[in-house]
Amino acid sequence: MHVILVATQKGGAGKSTIAAHFAALAAQDGKTLLIDADPQASLTDWYTSREAETPLLAQADANSIAQVLDAAADEDVRWVIIDSAPHNAPLMASLMSRASITVIPVRPGPFDLKAAAKTLDMARALKAPMACIINAAPPPTRESEPTVVAEARVVLSSMGAPVLPGQVSQRAAFSHALITGQSVTEYDPEGRAAGEILAMWSAVAKLAESFPRKS
């Protein structure tokens, strides 16, 4: 069982959007459980609008997360995607210890970069595998990525953070898809948003599979 935690200690970084799309893509590769561990329950709202029967969904908190993960392992779930609460450090640390990899979405701005540093420090302290995704960024041009994205990549690299290539841009297609209970790969499979999130998922899945499975 591969467990992917989407986490950061700052709200508004786009965790739920990333988690929903990763889960929809993971479900194409095997039995997938999406865990909504954020009290805001954005993923649960998305799921109630969804017509597709996959992925599976469970809600969890600090008291139930271990039981939910153990049950998933017993039921031969291949992928678990977890959306964590942004301001609950003890829960986040517990989830990191169970994750194959922690994905840290970072908007290219000073407040998000500062918050990312705290999440990176926690992952390092726990010796938890991690990777940063530049998220909700200005769309790239044909020639190069936006200056603000390049600057964010430099800052993250200076922190010693592994940063995945590419980016997930701020695109209206994400909002349109989520409102209808879809992913952008279902809503507009040939669109640029779908291409970006698929490339990012492929990179994350490859990383997760390079680490031992969690049980």
Poorly predicted runs are none
What proportion strand? 15-25%
| CATH topology group of the domain at 2-103 and 166-209 | Rossmann fold
- Give the biggest sheet: 7 strands, parallel
Q: Can you tell me the CATH superfamily of the domain at 2-103 and 166-209?
A: P-loop containing nucleotide triphosphate hydrolases
CATH architecture of the domain at 2-103 and 166-209: 3-Layer(aba) Sandwich
Short structural description:
The chain has 215 residues and is of the alpha/beta class.
Walk me through the topology.
Layout: E1 2-6, H1 15-26, E2 32-37, H2 42-48, E3 56-59, H3 65-74, E4 79-84, H4 89-98, E5 101-106, H5 110-126, E6 130-137, H6 147-158, E7 168-169, H7 172-179, H8 184-187, H9 192-209
Parallel strand pairs: 1-4, 1-5, 2-3, 2-4, 5-6, 6-7
Structure commentary:
It is a single chain. The chain is of the alpha/beta class and 215 residues long. The protein has a domain at 2-103 and 166-209: Rossmann fold. It is built from 9 helices and 7 strands; from the N terminus they run βαβαβαβαβαβαβααα. It has helices at 15-26, 42-48, 65-74, 89-98, 110-126, 147-158, 172-179, 184-187, 192-209, and strands at 2-6, 32-37, 56-59, 79-84, 101-106, 130-137, 168-169. The protein has a 7-stranded parallel sheet with strand order 3-2-4-1-5-6-7, sandwiched between helices. α1 (15-26) crosses α9 (192-209). The protein is globular and about 45 Å long. The protein starts with a strand and ends in a 6-residue tail after the last helix.
